[in-house]
Write a structure and sequence with these properties.
The structure holds three protein chains of three kinds. Chain B is α+β, with helices and mostly antiparallel strands. Chain B is globular and about 90 Å long. Helix content of chain C is 32%, strand content 17%. Chain C has helices at 27-34, 90-97, 107-120, 126-132, 144-157; strands spanning 5-12, 15-22, 53-56, 59-62, 75-77. The structure holds flavin-adenine dinucleotide and FE2/S2 (inorganic) cluster (FES) (2 copies).
């Protein structure tokens, strides 16, 4: 068993990325994924444990021009109560409302949710709809360097991302969606919230004169990573949002999804849910634009 | 506020049926209460158990050397240390195993300075197993070629129970309608919020003090003793506050003797406390079963017979679970008037976790079957569903074929009360007509009822309870009873009763019931018996004390004792309410007189019932009660989710004593019943639990709780205290079939297995649609049960 | 495993405290084992039940999931810190009065969360209270009396 020899709680991004550059570090944010994974022996600590919650300036939600930026430390509660997000990206707020419980939302960070790379991560689905990009910061050549990578390319496998060990997830950014853009998120379960998604679905687009365009669809817990549902998107793009096309989209959703069996649901049921929820979300979109 | 004016007259009031604060609530609200989980004794060591983590295996070798050598470890035990120390209902269990028969089987145990060291030591124990083929369902277990789980139980056969009454063949022949189904009920577990815990400590005379969560301290000693090779008399049981029990602490489970054996070995107090994962894997379950039931009736609606063939999954050891057929049988044979009965129940050993007792005790399982079959018959007869039930409902004074004497019986009132409150008949028709509409959400309403023992259950030689009561010179009363407090509120009930009889404030009553060296005999908190039996014992003791006090007052005031009453801390004239003397003053006068007298009384109350007996023909409880639940639900036919909108309950409680307590028990019982019906499910794969956490084992939370409309029928009871009956289990018992019946009403599809989970619901609906036989129940259900 | 220890300072129920804790210890364990505050309960250790709910800088969190080191410089309030002097906190009193307490094991966490809800929601109705308690499991009460108790406090506030 490896031993922790160093505990850091940097106050600046600068200090944090420098520490990361030195190698072997476990990043701790809210701890709501890290703590249970460690306790269950699913992971091991690196030699340095770095608590990033004291870093200044990383917990802000801002809009600069058309670009919205959510700092890594922003909690799900802060997303839920953000006036700004309610205006620019209500679908993200809606997903935050279906996230665990108050106690979890108050601790859980958006950075943690994304870096944990669970196929069921609830913040990820709406962010995929928003064509979000991830900002990674690292220390190179004596300065902070950042790189941007599109969120849908960020995930590799359950718990695995393209983030390098020396990189800190600094923020997630997205452009304000076009006027008329509506999106809905849906996660079923007997409980409103304290429920890891058996599947989750988000679909958005611009509905003008009955025609659906700029269609974006994403799904959680139906593949090793959260995915964009490309077949659903093509099925709907540029077509009227009517009963026939909704039915077709529901079939496409089943093709996009490659769910597995686990204790929460069988693949059969997940497949079924994906289809019916696609209908539900599209009906919601219809209702809310009329 | 300081009230200085003293009234000269005190009116008669009663506490019975009032809302009284639970005595321990204030401390529980502030975090001050020291639960057993919080207790730390000086020098205490922490015990940890190595569980097998495989369902069936021979232990080839165990090497504990490294664990023993770890600094901070004080003792390690394995199977060879407990050889011959068998315990359990049929002596089929030992604290530490040499053969593994289920996933959680205890293989070794360590006592160490800290939990961390103990856990680390477990990691150093090397065990070599030889895995054996397992049996994971009772159906498989009884096959001829099934692997034998224990040599001493051929055919994997555990307990068997049977009861027959009347001529089945004739009854079948005269039946116009027979419903015949196989119901399947699943594994669930108690999920006490306080995980299992025991702290054991030996004194140097060899006497064991065990701090325990037990809910039956006296028989507990008897059951624990053989696991330790001790005499029960050398065991003292202390019961600190516990985080729930619900039946799970009605037996001895291996961690308890393990704590004691480690304490003995190390000479220091040892605490064993489960993690939540251990709790899920190792705590007892509710008994799963396969119930083949048939019920017949004539065209005019008269029931003709009922037969039930029950196959129980015993699990690896025999705790209380396999004894539930005794209670199942009572519901099969009673409740609605069934003249002919054929009942047969066989438990089969498997390599699954084993069942203990759990709130509802068998009746949860049977009622799922009986109440659905009654519903099916009502429909097939095309009779008014309430009329049909009323016509067959047993009436006061009737006896069941098993000779349960329904001296008071309010089933008809329960039925009409609940039906009227919900406009049941009309709504059921309306929803039934809408069932084939193509709307996504469908509404349904369903009714179910059951009977349960409500005056104890004489499954032991005695079903009694001992009580001691003293009233001191300050007019404070202390009542010592064998009845345990596990959160259910017997403390409130007893304080209220003593206060009622002695005319003192409830806060002036202290209850002592957590030390077996102090408290007299009681058989434990189970069978909805405690308010009835310990409450009656408290009442009888309080009446004796009251009489002694009134006699003394009579001498003092020269007024006849029956013209006096005790109110508000005073002796008063019964009619006028005028004050005669302050109670404390009288008590001191009684004490400090030439022939001094203290108020100290005892009572042993044995309810008027008969032992269960091997033929199962007896009036085993001193009272019986009924409950009717009506569930109103909305089915999401897309996702399969069932939302319970409202539960209306009508229950015969005899008389309400502690109102808030009774409501709380009913509401909590319903929540546990809802979890059973809908969301809770121990997912076992070859005996291994796949969901040992609240994330995947879903108990009901606040947002899922439906609106409740509770009706208590208070028709009294000749035997219970102030006319009260036991009440705590029925709310859990009746709910699942009410929901299943509502589901049928909403969709025309029957689900014959618990839980009605979203996935199962969707499958059933799709299957019914595909076969286009939504009316043919068995087709749809065969695949989903 | 001997875990690295570090010293932290924070305010606990209004009083400054200094403790040295292993960096991997969770806050629940620190409160219960190091600081003897056993009112906060362990019932799952996985963020699912809310029995370990405390306030951290005014917000409720599950102390079983939070690293103790993260308390450094912050303000922590536990169930023991809710009562002021002799008198019960209005929510504690309401839970007692409404019969919302049976075994009581879930209650400290339940009351901490209820207090947070009442404080942070100007328009708190029964439906919102239900949702607000979604992270707190009670196996005894069926929540009805808990909802009654909290509702009564909300109403008396108006
Ligand atoms: C009971 C319970 C319920 C839950 N319910 C939900 C739910 O409904 N929906 C949902 O989506 N999730 C849920 N989760 C999962 C979890 O709460 C979230 O994923 C949360 O957002 C993680 O954030 P955190 O700050 O706690 O992350 P941490 O646990 O601190 O970190 C998570 C991972 O990300 C890494 N990390 C964190 N921040 C950074 C960073 N800035 N840069 C690089 N790496 C970083 C950490 O090293 C770690 O590997 C639940 C968890 C629990 C215990
Ligand atoms: S113990 Fe922390 S949420 Fe259950
Ligand atoms: S009162 Fe027992 S768990 Fe809530």
């Amino acid at each position: 068993m490896s031993e922790i020899t160093n505990y850091l709680s940097p106050c600046s991004l600068d200090d944090a990325v420098r520490a990361l550059a030195d190698g072997d570090v476990t990043v701790l944010c809210g701890g709501t994924d890290l703590m249970p994974q460690m306790e269950a022996g699913q992971r091991e600590y690196a030699s340095t444990l770095m608590n990033i919650r004291r870093i200044e300036g990383l917990a802000e939600i801002t809009l600069t021009g058309d670009t919205c930026r959510i700092g890594a430390l922003t909690t799900v509660s802060e997303i839920l109560t953000s006036q700004l997000l309610d205006e620019v990206a209500p679908v993200l707020v809606a997903a935050a409302d279906q996230f665990a419980s108050d106690q979890l939302r108050n601790a859980a960070s958006i950075g943690g949710n994304i870096c944990n790379a669970s196929p069921a991560g609830d913040m990820i689905i709406p962010l995929l709809l928003l064509n979000a990009v991830v900002e990674l910061a690292s220390w190179q050549d004596g300065a902070i360097q950042t790189r941007l990578i599109s969120l849908h390319e960020f995930f590799k496998a359950p718990g695995k991302t393209v983030r390098q060990n020396n990189e800190l997830f600094a923020a997630v950014l997205f452009d304000k969606p076009p006027p008329g853009f509506v999106a809905h998120f849906c996660k079923p379960g007997p409980r409103p919230a304290l429920e890891i998604a058996t599947v989750s679905i988000g679909i958005g687009g611009v509905l003008e004169d009955g025609v659906f365009s700029d269609v974006r669809a994403a799904m959680g817990a139906v593949a090793p990573t959260p995915i964009r549902a490309r077949r659903v998107e093509t099925t709907l793009e540029g077509l009227p949002l009517n009963a026939d096309n909704i039915r077709a989209a529901s079939v496409s959703a089943g093709e996009d999804a490659t769910p597995i069996d686990d204790v929460r649901a069988s693949s059969w049921y997940r497949d079924h849910l994906v289809r019916v929820l696609t209908k539900e979300v599209l009906n919601d979109v219809l209702e809310n634009t009329n | 506020m300081n009230k200085k004016t003293i009234a000269t007259h005190i009116e008669k009031t009663t506490l019975i049926g009032q809302r009284v604060r639970k005595p321990d609530a204030a401390d529980k609200s502030t975090g001050k209460t020291r639960y057993i989980n919080d207790l730390v004794l000086p020098q205490m060591l922490y015990g940890k158990i190595l569980h097998a983590g495989r369902p069936h295996a021979q232990i080839v070798s165990i090497d504990t050397t490294a664990a023993e050598q770890l600094p901070g470890v004080h003792g390690v035990l394995t199977g060879k240390d407990v050889a011959g120390l068998k315990f359990g209902f049929v002596r089929d269990n030992v604290a530490l195993k040499e053969t593994v028969r289920c996933e959680h089987d205890e293989v070794a145990a360590v006592a160490a300075e800290t939990e961390e060291i103990a856990s680390q030591a477990l990691g150093l124990i090397k065990v070599e197993y030889k895995d054996l083929p397992g049996v994971f369902s009772p159906e498989d277990g009884r096959r001829e070629d099934a692997p034998l789980i224990r040599g001493d139980f051929p055919g994997n056969k555990s307990l068997h129970f049977a009861f027959e009454h009347g001529d089945l063949t004739a009854a079948e022949a005269e039946s116009d309608i027979i419903v015949d189904n196989v119901f399947k009920v699943h594994h669930v577990t108690h999920c006490c919020m306080g995980t299992s815990c025991a702290i054991a400590d030996f004194d140097n005379n060899g006497k064991l003090t065990i701090y325990s969560q037990t809910q039956y301290p006296y028989n507990y000693k008897m059951d624990l003793a053989p696991a330790l090779g001790m005499h029960p008399g050398d065991i003292r049981v202390i019961q600190p506050p516990v985080g729930g029990a619900f039946g799970s602490k009605l037996d001895v489970y291996p961690y308890e003797p393990i704590a004691a054996l480690l304490a003995k070995k190390t000479g220091r107090p040892v605490k064993v406390l489960y993690t939540r994962e251990e709790e899920f894997k190792s705590a007892p379950t509710r008994q799963p079963a396969v119930i083949h039931m048939r019920t017949g009736c004539k065209k005019d609606g008269t029931l003709t017979f009922r037969s039930a063939d029950v196959l129980l999954d015993n699990g690896a050891y025999t705790s209380w679970g396999p004894t539930i057929p005794v209670v199942m049988m009572r519901t099969v044979s009673g409740h609605y008037r069934v003249p002919v009965i054929a009942y047969n129940a066989q438990a089969i050993y498997t390599n699954n976790p084993y069942a203990g007792s759990f709130r509802g005790y068998g009746n949860v399982q049977t009622t799922f079957a009986t109440a659905q079959q009654i519903d099916m018959l009502a429909e097939q007869l095309d009779m008014d569903p309430i009329e049909f039930r009323l016509m067959n409902a047993q009436k006061p004074g009737e006896r069941t074929p098993q000779q349960a004497f329904l001296r008071e019986c309010a089933l008809d009132k329960c039925l009409t009360t609940a039906a009227d409150a919900t406009d049941f008949v009309t709504r059921q028709k309306e929803y039934g007509l809408l069932r084939n509409s193509d709307s996504r959400y469908k509404k349904g309403i369903g009714i179910a009822s059951s009977i349960h023992n409500a005056g104890g259950a004489k499954i032991h030689k005695s079903d009694g309870c001992g009580t001691m009561l003293k009233v001191d010179d300050y007019a404070r009363a202390t009542l010592i009873t064998g009845a345990s407090e596990i959160g259910q509120g017997i403390d409130t009930v007893i304080s209220l009763i003593v206060a009622e009889e002695l005319g003192i404030p409830v806060e002036h009553v202290t209850l002592m019931n957590n030390d077996s060296d102090l408290a007299p005999w009681d058989v434990g908190v189970h069978a909805s018996r405690t308010t009835f039996i310990a409450g009656e014992g408290a009442r009888r003791a309080a009446v004796k004390a009251r009489q002694q006090i009134l006699n003394a007052a009579s001498t003092f005031a020269e007024i006849s004792a029956d013209e006096l009453d005790l109110r508000d801390g005073f002796v008063v004239r019964d009619k006028e309410g005028s004050i005669v003397i302050k109670l404390e003053k009288l008590l001191r006068q009684m004490h400090f007189q030439p022939e001094p007298e203290l108020v100290m009384v005892t009572d042993y109350y044995e309810p008027n019932s008969e032992p269960e007996g091997a033929d199962h023909i007896s009036n085993m409880s001193a009272a019986y009660s009924h409950a009717v639940h009506i569930a109103e639900i909305t089915v999401d036919t897309w996702t399969g989710e069932i939302k319970v909108d409202k539960i209306t309950s009508a229950q015969d409680v005899g008389r309400v004593i502690s109102r808030a307590g009774l409501e709380g028990q009913t509401e909590g019982g319903i929540a546990i019943g809802l979890g059973y019906a809908l969301t809770e499910d121990m997912q076992l794969e070859d005996g291994m639990l796949k969901n040992p956490c609240f994330r995947d084992y879903k108990v009901i939370t606040a947002p899922e709780m439906p609106e409740l409309d509770l009706h208590f029928i208070e028709d009294g009871c000749a035997e219970g205290p102030y006319g009260a009956k036991g009440a705590a289990e029925l709310p859990t018992i009746v709910i699942a079939p009410a929901i299943a019946n509502a589901f049928y009403n909403a969709t025309g599809v029957r689900i014959l297995s618990t839980p009605l989970s979203p996935e199962k619901v969707v499958r059933a609906l799709i299957l019914a649609q595909q076969a286009d036989v939504s009316s043919s129940d068995s087709m749809a259900t065969a695949a989903v049960s | 495993m001997m875990s690295l220890k570090t010293q932290i300072n924070f305010k606990l129920n209004g009083q400054p405290v200094t403790v040295t804790v292993p960096v991997t210890m969770n806050t629940l364990t620190m409160l219960r084992d190091e600081l003897d505050l056993t009112g906060t309960k362990y019932a799952c250790g996985e963020g699912e039940c809310g029995a370990c709910t405390i306030r951290l800088d005014g917000k409720t969190i599950n102390s079983c999931l939070m690293y103790a080191v993260d308390c450094d410089g912050r303000e922590v309030v536990t169930i023991e810190g809710l009562k002021s002097g002799e008198t019960l906190h209005p929510l504690q009193q309401a839970f007692v009065d409404h019969g919302a307490i049976q075994c009581g094991f879930c209650i400290p966490g339940m009351i901490m969360q209820a207090d947070y809800l009442v404080e942070n929601n100007p328009d708190l109705d029964r439906a919102r209270i239900r949702r607000g308690l979604e992270g707190n499991i009670c196996r005894c009460t069926g929540y009805t009396k808990v909802l009654d108790a909290i509702t009564s406090v909300v109403e008396s506030r108006e």
